[in-house]
Amino acid sequence: GKTSGIALGEFLKDGAIVGVSNGETVAAVADNMRRSRASDINVVTLIGGVGRPEEPGQTGQICRSFASRIGGDAWVLPVPAVVESSEIAAAFRSTKAHREVFSLVEKTTIALIGIGSTTPGSSTFQHGHFSSELLEDIVENNAVGTICARFFDINGEVTPTDIDSRTISISLKQLAAVPVKFGVAIGNDKTRAIM
User: Fold this and answer.
1) What is the DSSP string of 59-88?
2) Which pTM was predicted?
3) pLDDT tens for residues 50-91?
4) Which 8-state DSSP code applies to residue 48?
5) Whole-angstrom distance, CA of residue 105 vs CA of residue 52
6) Could you read off the pLDDT of 23-37 as tens digits, one per residue?
7) For residues 116 and 130, which has the higher predicted lDDT (pLDDT)?
8) Cross-strand partners of 124
9) Helix or strand (DSSP H, E) at 123
């Protein structure tokens, strides 16, 4: 976390917009950030809330911690990451709060993202965000990893799932357009996802 925080800190310039995802490794980087000399920095969540609000790896907690440590402003997407239907997702996306936060997401200059694995026993499987049937289907369709609840294969191509329309997060296409990206992950089970 400390080394990644130092490296990321070198990219913080006046007016930077830092997007953060969820996860314990991302939280560790946020916790090791130091006050920046740059001004007018905004930190924004790239995905709706994942996990319980009191968990350090919860998206909003990471955003607030990161912003507090560097002296920036936090912008938290006040919705879940995955909802029950595409209609509910569409309703959330139409809210003023979503539009305000996503106007910053679309201008993100630096992204700090956790890389999730689709191996059994990984946090993707353990935390109950997705049903076991869905995860089995994702693995059968050659998904090796996930970023912001978007699944991808060994070539980095999107693996379409039935949750895409129910997911409230940055898309992998939008993420690819962010100028500076820091992907963080710990564990041998993340090897294929990192590749």
Assistant:
1) HHHHHHHHHHHHT-EEE---SBSB-S-HHH
2) 0.88
3) 656 556 668 889 999 999 999 999 999 888 888 889 999 999
4) S
5) 22
6) 889 999 999 999 999
7) 116
8) none
9) helix 123-126
Question: 54-61: long-range contacts (C-beta < 8 A, 24 or more apart)?
Answer: 56/24, 56/27, 56/31, 57/22, 57/23, 57/24, 57/26, 57/27, 58/22, 59/20, 59/21, 59/22, 61/27
Tokens of 133: 């049937």
User: 180-184 and 110-114: which strand pairing?
Assistant: parallel
β-pairing verdict for 17-20 and 42-45: parallel
| pLDDT interval class at 177 (50, 70, 90) | very high
Question: Strand pairing of 73-75 and 145-147?
Answer: unpaired
Strands 42-45 and 73-75: parallel
- Two structure tokens written together for 144: 């090796």
